[in-house]
Amino acid sequence: MLSKSAIKYINALKKKKFRQRYDNFIAEGNKIALEILRQPDLKIQSIYATQDWVDLHEKKLHNIKDKLTVINERELKSISSLSTPNKVLLVLEKSKVEIESNLIKNNLSLVLDGIQDPGNLGTLWRIADWFGLEYLFCSENCVDLYNPKVIQASMGAFLRVKAIELNVPTLFSQYPKQSIYGAVLGGRSIYETTLERNGFLLIGNESKGISDALAATITHRIGIPSSGGAESLNAAVATGIICSWFR
């Protein structure tokens, strides 16, 4: 039976201040859970699952049975962030991400400025994963990387693409030779721009775009030419198109 203290603790992790206090976060669902169980270095604090899910994946749970609590559908609903809970929820320890200069210098890194929508951030993480980016850097005013909706929307990308919240101007100052490609309205068409294999791709806030402070750091102002009447593209859609052209 799921204790009241466990319910209180898990629900507290839905808020940023408690995720920061405990250095833990929530991941949910069958697909994400199975990916997590394949990661040897990921620290699972606890796992809560229905009996039918446990029976189906018993062999994969052999080494973490001491962290497993079998719960019913009603209990799962009391701790889930999903409108329709999906059999299993895990509490994980945040990974300590190290910045490796060579990886940054020799690869394209995605940098996000003020992204506020959790679904957008999770999708951007997923795009970074799809195109093989090593790092996702987020400005300090982005939505929290470990928001449950971000983790859910990332579709497991949080397991592969290293993500860090930091001061972006400081990051750029540490790599003065690295090109900074800023996606802006009216920027030079990506189809007419020679893009390097490495550099920083800077994507701005959903409605306000790139902040003035970071706009001043851009070395290449790029954009996607429009053939229709829409004012702008969704940040994640634009990022996918630009990453595809880089590749």
Topology:
Layout: H1 4-12, H2 16-22, E1 24-28, H3 30-37, E2 44-49, H4 51-56, E3 68-70, H5 73-79, E4 88-93, H6 101-105, E5 108-112, H7 118-130, E6 135-138, H8 148-154, E7 162-165, H9 168-174, E8 180-189, E9 199-203, H10 212-215, E10 220-223, H11 235-246
Parallel strand pairs: 2-3, 5-6, 5-9, 6-7, 8-9, 8-10
Antiparallel strand pairs: 1-4, 2-4
Helix pairs in contact: 7-8, 7-11
Please provide a written account of the structure:
It is a single chain. By secondary structure, this protein is of the alpha/beta class. It folds into two domains: 4-93, Ribosomal protein L30/S12 (60s Ribosomal Protein L30, Chain: A); 101-246, Alpha/beta knot. 34% of the residues lie in helices and 21% in strands. The chain has eleven helices and ten strands. The chain has helices spanning 4-12, 16-22, 30-37, 51-56, 73-79, 101-105, 118-130, 148-154, 168-174, 212-215, 235-246; strands spanning 24-28, 44-49, 68-70, 88-93, 108-112, 135-138, 162-165, 180-189, 199-203, 220-223. A six-stranded parallel beta sheet has the order 7-6-5-9-8-10. It has a four-stranded mixed beta sheet with strand order 1-4-2-3. Helix 7 packs parallel to helix 8 (148-154) and helix 7 runs parallel beside helix 11 (235-246). It is elongated. The model has no long low-confidence stretch (mean pLDDT 95).
